Amino acid sequence: MARDGAPHPTRSLMFGRMFSKLLKKDQEAPLSLEQPQREAIIDTLVFAMMADGEMTSEERDELDGAFDRLEWSGEFDREAFLDESIARANQAKKSMDQARQYIAEIGGRLQTDPIRDRAYEMAARIVCADRDVAEAERGLMSMFIREFQIPEARAVEISASVHKDFELL
Questions:
Q1: 3-class secondary structure for the chain?
Q2: Of 12, 15, 93, 155, which alpha carbon lies 20 to 30 A from 166's?
Q3: Phi, psi (5° rounding) for residue 94?
Q4: Domains plus CATH for the chain?
């Protein structure tokens, strides 16, 4: 959301493209995700969206739209999973230790470095979408780096790419 409370014009476009980009970014070796990895990606994105407070109805609508682009074969339907993901994120936000544990658990489900890198990149894009990165969001991104075990040089590379895309450098 933009500072004036209006939905940021780039967010609507960004979420719809994010899932397509997730699977197609490396055309020579696209990522193949199993259901637990897809669920972990959603948990990552939901937690990133909630870093600066509650998820707005506009953000929820945008996430629902992006979610429709993701192959789904989970035990629960998409809507139920998303509701549970929001509840898990709200619980994890209660303390730094709970947040760290939650992110570490998500990272364990992502399983490979390329998938963790991509999840981190997508979370960074969410955090940067309004071009106003709050201190809580910076802390969350640092926690993703640590708990996803992303090497510092790789995290800097991903962050620079995201910041360039959003002209934040």
A1: CCCCCCCCHHHHHHHHHHHHHHHHCCCCCCCCCCHHHHHHHHHHHHHHHCCCCCCCHHHHHHHHHHHCCCCCCCCCCHHHHHHHHHHHHHHHCCCHHHHHHHHHHHHHHHCCHHHHHHHHHHHHHHHHCCCCCCHHHHHHHHHHHHHCCCCHHHHHHHHHHHHHHCCCC
A2: 93
A3: -70, -25
A4: 9-21+32-165 (1.10.3680)
**pTM, rounded to two decimals:** 0.81
Query: What does the pLDDT look like over 12-46, one tens digit per residue?
Result: 455 556 555 555 554 455 677 889 998 999 999 99
22: number of CA atoms within 13 Å, CB side? 29
Residues near 87 by Cβ (< 8 Å), separated by ≥ 6? none
